[in-house]
């Protein structure tokens, strides 16, 4: 059983590693079909006995190689590519050919391959998705399917789905509206749920909802794979989403986690608010980002000193990420100090495209910005805001590169012994400043983290290792925790539990190197601990349905995790 109490048909979890499995597709897969089935195909790793039993003689060269040797060969090939997009295409081809080998590569070489299957390379892949499109991955639901969404869901071959990642392609990373080509994002996200969090591949479903696009170049592109019309909005849009959410619950039940991904601000907040009461929903851009940044801050305080409430926070960017992080900081502060959350919000200031968000602007603000409009005279620029508010923590979620200028960073260093600077916008070209700039302009005193990876920086003989505030630290473990506890709703306290669990994983050795996030190499161990903490909180809040509660949640989480080692076929 394992896998959060769902039968393990394909032998994907650690708990079933030693059992013999039958390679079913609709009947027992054998011969040519077995080699064409990515879930069961092992390439040249089929044993002599398996080749006889499954009619593979002659369909493969006579050599028998181990999975480790296959991995070595493929990594060698990948490293020979100079263009990141070629690596991405090679990885996607592998996923469609041999699923276990794809995950073996990703798990064993996570730091090297994460930027290939996810940000920054996935952004370029989405921009060119129409041209590199080979085989459909995931499920496409468009306006043409209105009234038939349940039937469309039933076309997906897997029945027991545990995690769905869905996008409408309107705000892909910092790249804007990519319409139907945003499918690269749910596909990439779910491969990380499996590789980093151990959620079974067969239980993951990537979905793109195509309601059109406002991107002129796509509308005029002969290779565009989506609907060639302007985006549906208002009632038409919300009716389609309503039908989708209802169909998901009807087809997969109450306990399927639906992660909203890369929706535009105005829809993201509305959808999360609307469905969080009736469905198990999570928005990684709002909640996942907030959770991982909060973990970074909790860890950074061990370097800088003081509690969350002792610091003043200034954000550049007041969209999904900025307001999501700001709200979670206020929530954790309120929990630590028992001060009402409204008072805690007063420690957090936001700057948007029109300047500092202040009380006098309240009427014209979008609803999600209003709680952070405090009493202050209007301030137009970030530099003036920094000089006036004197924050100890500066966080960039603007999506605009080079906005933390030398003057801004030097101002931070002028009145802080150890300024905390997080430049979180993706991809690298959109980062508010680089690691090198942050360390050089603060003369090595900054505690720095970024959204995209930066190399270590040498400054005056000392090496500084920048932390990467990557959502991939949180959402895979969070998803696993939700799945193994059978949670039926996501509660903010579960996000706080995930942040605390991640911050606990940063060792003294990491701090000594200037790291405020643990290295990605032991991400599966970290994910198991996050899953255990999240599951424990779900049980505590009475939201977990998988009873009785396992005694050792970390052990249980580990036993439920997918392992990519080849299984022996009978």
TrEMBL record:
Pathway: Photosynthesis; C4 acid pathway. Divalent metal cations. Prefers magnesium or manganese. Residues 286-539 form the Malic enzyme NAD-binding domain. Pfam families: malic, Malic_M. GO terms for molecular function: malate dehydrogenase (decarboxylating) (NADP+) activity; metal ion binding; NAD binding. Keywords: Metal-binding, NADP, Oxidoreductase. It catalyses: oxaloacetate + H(+) = pyruvate + CO2. Residues 95-276 form the Malic enzyme N-terminal domain. Its cofactor is Mg(2+); Mn(2+). GO terms for biological process: malate metabolic process. Homotetramer. This is Malic enzyme. The lineage of its organism: Eukaryota, Viridiplantae, Streptophyta, Embryophyta, Tracheophyta.
């Amino acid at each position: 059983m394992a896998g959060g109490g769902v039968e393990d048909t394909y032998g994907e979890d650690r708990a079933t590693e030693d059992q013999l499995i039958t390679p079913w597709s609709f009947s027992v897969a054998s011969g040519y079909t077995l080699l064409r089935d990515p879930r069961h195909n092992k390439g040249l790793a089929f044993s002599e006995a398996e080749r006889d039993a499954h009619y593979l003689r002659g369909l493969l060269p006579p050599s028998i190689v181990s999975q480790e040797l296959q991995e070595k060969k493929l990594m060698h090939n990948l490293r020979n590519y100079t263009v990141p997009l070629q690596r991405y295409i090679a990885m996607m081809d592998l996923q469609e050919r041999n699923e276990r080998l794809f995950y073996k590569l990703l798990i064993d070489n996570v730091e090297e391959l994460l930027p290939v299957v996810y940000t920054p390379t996935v952004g370029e892949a989405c921009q060119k998705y129409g041209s590199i499109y080979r085989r459909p991955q995931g499920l496409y639901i468009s306006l043409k399917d209105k009234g038939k969404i349940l039937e469309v869901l039933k076309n997906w071959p897997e029945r027991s789905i545990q995690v769905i990642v869905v996008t409408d392609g309107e705000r892909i990373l910092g790249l804007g509206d990519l319409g139907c080509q945003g499918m690269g994002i749910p596909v990439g996200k779910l491969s990380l749920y499996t590789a980093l969090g151990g959620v079974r591949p067969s239980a993951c479903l990537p979905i793109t909802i195509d309601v059109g696009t406002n991107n002129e170049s796509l509308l005029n592109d002969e290779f565009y794979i989506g609907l060639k019309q302007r985006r549906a909005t208002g009632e038409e849009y919300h009716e389609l989403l309503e039908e989708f959410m209802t169909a998901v619950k009807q087809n997969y039940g109450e306990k399927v986690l639906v992660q909203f991904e890369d929706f535009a601000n105005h829809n993201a907040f509305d959808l999360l608010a609307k469905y969080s009461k009736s469905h198990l929903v999570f928005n990684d851009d709002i909640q996942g980002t907030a959770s991982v940044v909060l973990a970074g801050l909790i860890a950074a305080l061990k370097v800088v000193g003081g509690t969350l409430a002792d610091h003043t926070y200034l954000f550049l960017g007041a969209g999904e990420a900025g307001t999501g992080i700001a709200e979670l900081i206020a929530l954790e502060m309120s929990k630590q100090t028992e001060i009402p959350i409204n008072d805690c919000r007063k420690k957090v200031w936001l700057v948007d495209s029109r300047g500092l968000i202040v009380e006098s602007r309240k009427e014209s603000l979008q609803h999600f910005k209003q709680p952070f409009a405090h009493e202050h005279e209007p301030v137009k620029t970030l530099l003036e805001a920094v000089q006036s508010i004197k924050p100890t923590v500066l966080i960039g979620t603007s999506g605009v590169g080079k906005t933390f200028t030398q003057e801004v960073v030097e101002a931070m260093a002028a009145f802080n012994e150890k300024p905390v600077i997080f430049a979180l916008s993706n991809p690298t070209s959109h980062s508010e400043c680089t690691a090198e700039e942050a360390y050089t302009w603060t003369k090595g005193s900054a505690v720095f983290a970024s959204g995209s990876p930066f190399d270590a920086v040498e400054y005056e003989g000392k090496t500084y290792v920048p932390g990467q505030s990557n959502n991939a630290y949180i959402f895979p473990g969070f998803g696993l925790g939700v799945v193994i506890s059978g949670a039926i709703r996501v509660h903010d306290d579960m996000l706080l539990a995930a942040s605390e669990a991640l911050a606990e994983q940063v060792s003294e050795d990491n701090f000594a190197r200037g790291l405020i996030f643990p290295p990605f190499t032991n991400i599966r161990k970290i994910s198991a601990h996050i899953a255990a903490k999240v599951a424990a909180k779900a049980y505590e809040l009475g939201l977990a349905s998988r009873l009785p509660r396992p005694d050792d949640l970390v052990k249980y989480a580990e036993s439920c995790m997918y392992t990519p080692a080849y299984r022996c076929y009978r």
